[in-house]
Specification:
Layout: E1 3-4, E2 25-28, E3 33-38, E4 50-53, E5 57-62, E6 65-71, E7 73-80, E8 93-99, E9 105-106, E10 113-114, E11 119-124, E12 127-134, E13 137-145, E14 152-160, E15 168-174, E16 176-179, H1 182-185, E17 189-194, E18 199-204, E19 215-218
Parallel strand pairs: 1-10
Antiparallel strand pairs: 2-3, 3-11, 4-5, 5-6, 6-7, 7-16, 8-9, 8-15, 11-12, 12-13, 13-14, 17-18, 18-19
């Protein structure tokens, strides 16, 4: 069910001691974090999920990667698609990295480009962190939402461990819903790019309860292209 990455071998992650380790995960930092260690081709028996939310906005993160994002109502106003499939657990939001010199494509998360090497997923209070060392990079991605605002943050850190200068492109993929159901809402989604603010916007022009809400995506890195 996974596509295999065309990537250099993954490196081991720094060892950490886990309490009540069950072969897949255990507690760290006095029980404030739950750490999932997936090496080889091991998987959890079902999605192991962290719900991250404030009063009006939130998201879920699974061991495979970031799940869907919602606003105001987690059922009626999904911003991205929720996978009701515990076996495949398809991700609606994905960050890809592409080495522009070798054309290798890789992800810090298990899906959708699973590689054999180790992955570490840390579920904490209000955040989830993904770690992997591969393709000549120490990789870390942390996801959290604002304490009060309707904002979701994805912080990506890459450390070049090779002796060469690297040229990368980063791609963010989002499967939009902006409502209850992916198939029924899709004909009414209107997307645009605001060049003055450097944001991609999306609006459901047919919704009744959430009319006038505008979803947007912004990157601190310069935007080279979008679709």
């Amino acid at each position: 069910s996974y596509a295999e990455a065309t990537a250099m071998p993954s490196e081991k992650l720094p060892h950490i001691d886990l309490e009540l380790f069950n072969g897949l995960g255990g507690f760290a930092n006095d029980g404030t974090e739950y750490v999932i260690e997936l090496d080889g081709w091991r998987r959890t028996p079902a999605p192991w999920v962290n719900l991250i939310s404030n009063k009006n906005f939130g998201c879920i993160c699974t061991e495979s990667g970031p799940g869907y994002t919602f606003c105001m109502n987690s059922r009626e106003n999904k911003l991205t698609e929720w996978s009701n499939d515990p076996l495949l657990n398809r991700l609606p939001e994905i960050i890809y990295f592409k080495d522009m010199d070798s054309d290798d494509v890789f992800c810090t998360t298990i899906q959708p480009l699973r590689a054999k090497g180790p992955y570490r997923i840390t579920h904490g209070f209000g955040y989830t962190k993904y770690q992997r060392n591969s393709n000549g990079f120490n990789q870390e991605m942390t996801i959290f939402v604002s304490k009060s605002a309707k904002l979701k943050y994805t912080l990506v850190s890459l450390e070049n461990t090779s002796d060469n200068e690297r040229n990368l492109s980063v791609y963010y993929y989002a499967d939009l819903v902006l409502g209850l159901n992916h198939d029924s809402e899709m004909p009414y989604l209107f997307t645009d790019y605001d060049s003055s603010m450097g944001i991609i916007t999306a609006e459901n022009i047919y919704t009744t309860h959430y009319k006038g809400y505008l979803a947007y995506m912004y990157s601190e890195l310069p935007l080279e292209s979008y679709t």
